[in-house]
Automatic annotation (TrEMBL):
The keyword Glycoprotein does not apply. This is Nitroreductase family protein. Residues 37-205 form the Nitroreductase domain. The lineage of its organism: Bacteria, Pseudomonadati, Pseudomonadota, Alphaproteobacteria, Rhodobacterales. It holds the Pfam family Nitroreductase. It comes from Pseudodonghicola flavimaris. PANTHER family: IODOTYROSINE DEIODINASE 1 (PTHR23026:SF90), NADPH NITROREDUCTASE (PTHR23026). It comes from the Bacteria. Keywords: Flavoprotein, FMN, Oxidoreductase. The keyword Signal does not apply.
Length: 230
């Protein structure tokens, strides 16, 4: 992606420009909020398949995210293979059992009670796709020499947020899952030591009897999440 002969600055005209008046901007912003407030983290999936082309399009959208020095320090491993999903579930549940047995600490485990989670993660095999997000701590030039990536967690988090929005926009439900530690994912997916797994995203169509915890739909009001200094 990055070559040494490209390490120079060149300005090009802004290729795309939004042309909206104030009213159009507000309508567009409110329409997007209305769509995103309908996003739900789902643990119950139907067996309806999701075409690979849809996943590819959503990942291309995630790849448009801004990143430190434009190094794009992310990799998304998309998994539909049942055997591989079963392996990931088995290893993730082993980590989760240690967490719920006391590794997470009493306060953390109590905080999860209103969400209703346990060490069992059937969504990891039931969902038609898993996407494992990796953060690339360094990269390599074409000659094999290493270069450092910058603002890696921030860049990967932005890309992941855009991915979740793209999946929802495509009519899919998704659930983020972060077993800890997650190093087993490098071996399972043949990813290099430079990459650190950050989360597993299960995705698909919600089951007919899908539910969500009531507590998860309580969102802080704007005055608690934002300050204005006009």
């Amino acid at each position: 992606m990055i070559s040494k002969d490209q390490l120079r600055y060149e300005a090009v005209p802004l290729p795309h420009r939004a042309r909206m008046d104030d009213e159009q901007m507000l309508l567009s912003a409110e329409a997007f909020h209305d769509q995103m407030r309908r996003r739900h983290s789902v643990r119950n999936y139907s067996d309806r398949p999701v075409p690979r082309a849809v996943i590819e399009s959503c990942l291309r959208t995630a790849g448009t995210a801004p990143s430190g020095a434009n190094h794009q320090p992310w990799h998304f491993a998309a998994i539909a293979d049942p055997a591989l999903k079963q392996q990931i579930r088995a290893e993730a549940e082993a980590e989760e059992r240690r967490f719920y047995a006391g590794g997470g600490g009493d306060e953390w485990i109590r905080a999860l009670e209103p969400i209703g989670t346990t060490a069992e993660k059937p969504h990891l095999t039931r969902a038609p796709w898993l996407i494992v997000v990796f953060a690339q701590r360094w990269g390599r030039f074409e000659d094999g020499s290493r270069y450092k990536n910058y603002y890696v967690p921030e860049s990967v988090n932005i890309a992941t947020g855009i991915l979740l929005a793209a999946l929802h926009h495509a009519g899919l439900a998704a659930l983020t899952h972060t077993p800890n530690p997650m190093k087993f994912l490098n071996a399972a997916l043949n990813r290099p030591e430079a990459e650190k797994p950050t989360m597993i995203i299960a995705l698909g169509h919600p089951a007919a009897d899908a539910t969500v915890p009531a507590a998860a739909k309580i969102k802080k009001p704007l005055e608690e999440i934002a300050s204005f200094f006009d």
